[in-house]
Design a protein that fits this description.
Chain lengths: 95, 1002
């Protein structure tokens, strides 16, 4: 079970959270092409390595936030608030 | 002494406390501290079970959790647990045990004929043999194979015991209480760090308890263990748990332990849980899992009486039990010589030590020779003879060129195997640790892991006792420091008199004369996999060790390859012509040893399996004799039988009451969310497909939610309480999902909106009052409120009180009749319900359940999300195209709903179906095709989503999703039945009753 640091509540066990899929996928407006819309809906990087992903502290504060997790090791490099840019951290640099 | 093979002055069993137990109906006497295996061996009985596939007679090869053979059933009736290792089961008064997989008796097994048929059961036997004819699989092959091959039988009665689950946190978790684990726990504990030390056996000490030779700090090994254990127990920051197995290493240092609390007790406190699972989150983990001695692979190596040399030493020094009267020892390692010397001292005749090495020259070898023990260097074992017990062996010289010479027979009643030591990598491997091959030791050692763990002692290839103790202490201190602890005096026990660690060891099948035979040279004892099977797999083209494992099933038994992995690797490596490090090792998977389902389930069983949500009128419904059904976590009244009615009769009566008088229904399970804030209307506009800006205060509207893929997700009535306040309802099952989706868009996409979302499902109880007399019943009860058709029309909403209780009154209908949904605080709903019930009874008010609710809505063609929809239906598909706002610049699903594919004319569309025979009620889920006798495969035109007998129409009705269905009214389709002919149906309007919708406005 992962130990996830909610930016608002601190480290908590994974059962308190709900997974929210890949982060930083901006929802386009209704004027986009079909291809662009399909890409927004379905195309994901399926990263092997450091992935920015969304979590919600659903059984805690209820807030969504982002995490950088290495999908090979499950190591979480950092967590950060929604609306802030992806931190420039690579695997091996995290605290 | 109890048992002919028990020696006095040896062992840790309490000879002052005899204990009797039963094995296969016989009374066996042992002592407190014995295991089933040690007590049986003390009687001279090695035969303890029959093997999985060939029903081979088997005895224990080990004295611990790596035991593959001696699996027994323990306990009676509902407490019976199969497949426990006799080497671990502690005896107590009244213990009842049985052997397994034998028929009819342990010493006479008709299934043993499989041994003679073994050449017919090669690797991949099942894949190759039972392919044809197809019909034989479930009727012949599987039942026969299942009966012939197998392990113990599970209890079928409910488990009478209870189990517990505990979470724990610590700085340092030490896995294994052997020499390295003790010094690791001492070193960490002395720093003040919070330490948990667990060990799977009843006593701390590990191999030290079997070591009668080494001395530590001037004490015997066992005395030093007692001293170390006492210091640990005196440290308040150290928790020691024995009979406690670390069986799973999860991400982020979450380690699961299985603690067995009552199994060893004759009369356990009934308040005690039988087992407990500990979920330990450890800042640092020290793995001191030790090493396991490897068996040797030769013809007949599974005969009872053949066991590991270390096991014999444990039986001698821990239990005071001799493995036999005359032993042959076959070794590739120096350690077996100490065992030979100790056994000889205890009175066992050592017929010979066959050493696979050419020049064994350790001091202990000389010591053995000096005692007159015959040592045969460069000697292999060709074969073991005997059936229920080994009777003799054939030892043969191995020449420098590897050729095996003529053998010589040695009579014996036990054979001790010493193939070298395999570091236990299971926990490290579970922690996604990589391994590296050590050329000198010839085994894999732990390398790196992504987790915060370190291995210490023999599990990382250190075998000298002094090294093991020092390594444990260093690892324990390092772990405590890494967890943020300070420094402390490091334990530095001094070892004297210990044997130097043996160099050597062997992996693979032993050399043999000529072609020999490997058909009964077992690699994996538990799964009956032989050296021949592994070789065959390679010959048949399997290259990867993972494939060889799956094809032969080697290493796949419940022992997870503890005794077999390295030998299988050795054979595969030789056969493939590749060095072992280029073959690789298979992944070890949890659990380390089997864990009972009871322990996993813990408290989550029976009525604690899931939380039960009760609607406010639940008690009233129970008093009325309602029949209930589970809807998600909710328990809902399904129908209210009167005077012996069946469901059909009750539902017919309930439906008729709603259509002719009035019905009362607990609708509290509806999900309810309050959307509040200056931007509430804008939020609603963006979230729902409908438009909300123009919805006036005091009005309701049916709202539909899509996902951004354009498919219907949820629906419900939404009331506008104030300009900035919406009372949203959702489906019963969709409540949490809708709120989560609202929060998702609000927090992540629309941070510009000033809106608060609050779940109010639990706050508001909802009484649905439906039927032509509903208003007449309700009017006198609402305090000063005008609820006439003019003042409160259909889809109107008023706030007020009912008998002084605050109320949000929605005029809505899910039945097609005049309807009210009376929202009152849940805690006060019971009283309001009783008042309505009393006022309504003279008018024929009738309680109805979910079944009647479904029928009534189906008669009106109202959809249920999740029944008509399946995650691939658009609003247009289910006849709600009208709800899609054309004016809004954007909403969830807008872009997708403009896709041509979602507007194609052959989209599935919601229609009604009528069967030719009005008595025929279709099955929900039936497929619909155009021709009654179309040959398979045939593609369906649609499927039935709802089907009932309609009391209002006096016939069956159904709702279906049919391709382009709205333009196919009157067309005939067929519903193929599993039994009998296809059922003819015609497509009709899904609104079966009151098509014009007059009644709802009455």
């Amino acid at each position: 079970m992962l130990l996830i640091a909610c930016p608002y509540c601190g480290p908590r066990a994974e059962i308190e959270f709900a997974y929210g899929g890949e982060a930083h996928i901006a929802r386009p407006g209704p004027g986009v092409t079909e291809e662009e819309w399909a890409a927004f809906l379905y195309l994901r990087d399926n990263t092997k390595g450091v992935l920015a992903e969304r979590w919600r502290h659903s059984h805690g504060c209820g807030r969504f936030f982002n995490a950088l997790r290495d999908t090979r090791t499950d190591r979480i490099l950092t967590t950060y608030e929604m609306g802030t840019p992806r931190p420039d951290i690579k695997e091996g640099e995290a605290a | 002494m109890s048992g002919a093979f028990r020696v006095s002055g040896r062992g840790r069993v309490d000879t002052a406390r005899p204990v009797s137990f039963r094995f296969d109906g016989r009374t066996i006497r042992g002592y407190e501290g014995d295991t089933v295996a040690s007590a049986l061996l003390a009687q001279g009985q090695h035969l303890m079970g029959r093997s999985f596939k060939y029903h081979r007679p088997r005895g224990p090869i080990s004295a611990g959790s790596d035991e593959p053979n001696a699996l027994i059933g323990v306990g009676e009736g509902a407490r019976h647990t199969p497949n426990l290792r006799a080497t671990q089961v502690e005896i107590h008064k009244g213990l009842v045990t049985v052997s397994q997989n034998r028929g009819p008796r342990l010493n006479f097994d008709v299934g043993a004929i499989n041994t003679w048929l073994a050449p017919l059961f090669p690797a991949g036997f099942y894949y190759k043999t039972f392919m044809w004819p197809r019909g034989f699989w479930d009727k012949v092959y599987e039942p026969v194979i299942r009966r012939a091959a197998g392990l113990g039988k599970v209890a079928t009665a409910p488990d009478p015991d209870h189990y517990a689950l505990h979470y724990a946190h610590c700085d340092v978790l030490v896995i294994g209480g052997g020499p390295a684990g003790l010094t690791a726990a001492l070193a960490a504990g002395r720093t003040g760090a919070r330490v948990i030390l667990c060990d799977e056996t009843p006593e701390l000490g590990g191999t030290l308890l079997s070591d009668a030779h080494s001395r530590i700090d001037g004490l015997s090994a066992a005395e030093w263990v007692a001293k170390a254990g006492a210091e640990l127990k005196a440290l308040p920051n150290v928790q020691v748990m024995t009979r406690c197995t670390a069986f799973n290493y999860g991400p982020h240092n979450m380690v699961a332990l299985n603690q067995r609390l009552t199994e060893h007790l004759a009369t356990p406190d009934p308040a005690m849980p039988r087992e407990r699972i500990w979920q330990v989150r450890a800042a640092e983990v020290v793995v001191t899992a030790g090493a396991l001695e490897r068996p040797l692979v030769f013809e007949g190596n599974d005969r009872p009486g053949i066991l590991l040399a270390t096991a014999a030493r444990t039986y001698l020094n821990r239990y005071g039990v001799l493995p036999g009267k005359c032993a042959v020892i076959v070794t590739a390692d120096d350690s077996a010589y100490r065992v030979a010397i100790e056994l000889a001292e205890a009175g066992v005749r050592i017929a010979a030590i066959a050493d696979l090495r050419a020049n064994p020259d350790a001091p202990v070898v000389a010591e053995a020779k000096a005692r007159g023990i015959v040592v045969l260097p460069s000697t292999t074992i060709q074969k073991a003879n005997g059936n229920l017990r080994v009777r003799s062996v054939e030892l043969a010289p191995v020449a420098d060129n590897g050729r095996v010479g003529k053998g010589q027979r040695f009579v014996c009643d036990c054979v001790l195997m010493a193939g070298g030591f395999t570091p236990s990598l299971h926990i490290h491997s579970q922690a996604r640790g990589t391994m590296r091959f050590d050329e000198v030791l010839g085994v894999y050692l732990p390398d790196r892991s992504v987790e915060r763990l370190r291995s210490a002692g023999s599990c990382r290839g250190l075998f000298a006792l002094q090294d093991v103790l020092d390594d444990g202490a260093a690892a324990g201190l390092a772990a405590a420091k890494a967890a943020g602890g300070g420094d402390a005096e490091r334990p530095a026990p001094r070892v004297t008199d210990a044997d130097a660690p043996g160099a050597g060891g062997f992996a693979g099948a032993l050399p043999r004369r000529g072609l020999g035979s490997l058909a009964l040279a077992f690699v994996d004892f538990q799964n009956d996999v032989t050296a021949k099977d592994v070789k065959l797999a390679v010959r048949e083209g399997f290259q990867s060790i993972e494939h060889i494992k799956r094809y032969t099933t080697t290493g796949m038994a419940t022992d997870q390859g503890k005794s077999s992995n390295v030998n299988a690797l050795g054979i595969a490596s030789k056969e493939l012509g590749r060095a072992p490090q280029r073959v690789g090792l298979t992944t070890f998977r949890p659990p380390y040893t089997p864990v009972t389902f009871g322990a996993f389930a813990a408290h989550a069983r029976g009525d604690q399996f899931d939380p039960l949500r009760l609607a406010p009128a639940d008690g009233w419904a129970r008093a009325q004799g309602a029949v209930f059904e589970d809807v998600g976590l909710w328990r809902r009244a399904r129908y209210f039988p009167r005077g012996g009615e069946d469901m059909h009769a009750a539902v017919t009566r309930e439906c008729s009451a709603v259509r002719t008088a009035a019905g009362i229904f607990d609708a509290s399970t509806l999900g309810k969310i309050e959307v509040v804030g200056p931007d509430a209307a804008e939020f609603m506009n963006r979230f729902y497909i409908n438009a909300w800006t123009k919805l006036g205060v005091g009005k309701c509207r049916y709202g539909l939610v899509c996902r951004d893929n354009g498919f219907v997700y949820d629906d419900g009535v939404v009331g506008r309480i104030a300009a900035d306040r919406f009372h949203v309802t959702t489906t019963t099952g969709g409540a949490a999902g809708v709120l989560n989706m609202m929060e998702d868009y609000l927090q992540t996409e629309w941070a510009d909106l000033d809106v608060w979302l609050t779940s109010i499902t639990e706050e508001w109880g909802v009484i649905a009052l439906q039927g032509p007399k509903a208003r007449e019943i309700l009017a006198p009860l609402v305090d000063g409120m005008d609820i006439s058709a003019e003042a409160l029309p259909h889809m109107g909403l008023k706030e007020g009180t009912i008998g002084g209780v605050p109320m949000r009154l929605f005029r809505v209908s899910f039945t097609g009749e005049v309807g009210f949904e009376i929202n009152v605080p849940s805690g006060r709903m019971g009283a309001v319900w009783e008042r309505i019930w009393a006022a309504g009874s003279p008018h024929g008010l009738t309680p109805y359940g979910t079944e009647a609710m479904h029928v009534l809505r189906a008669e009106k063609g109202y959809l249920i999300v999740g029944q008509e929809t399946d995650g691939t239906m658009t609003p247009g598909d289910v006849g709600c195209g009208w709800a899609v706002s054309k004016a809004k610049p954007d909403f969830i699903g807008k872009r997708a709903l403009a896709l041509p594919a979602l507007n194609a004319p052959d989209r599935p569309q919601m229609v009604g179906l009528l069967t030719d025979d009005p008595r025929t009620v279709l099955e929900e889920g039936m497929q619909l095709v155009r021709a009654p006798e179309a040959p398979a495969p045939v593609s369906a035109d649609g499927h039935v989503t709802s089907s009932y007998y309609s009391p209002a129409l006096g016939r069956s009705i159904a709702i279906a999703m049919v391709k382009g269905g709205r333009d196919r009214m009157g067309e005939t389709l067929y519903a193929p039945a599993i039994d009998g002919a296809a059922i003819k149906v015609s497509i009709v309007n899904p609104v079966f009753y009151d098509t014009e919708g007059v009644r709802v406005n009455g």
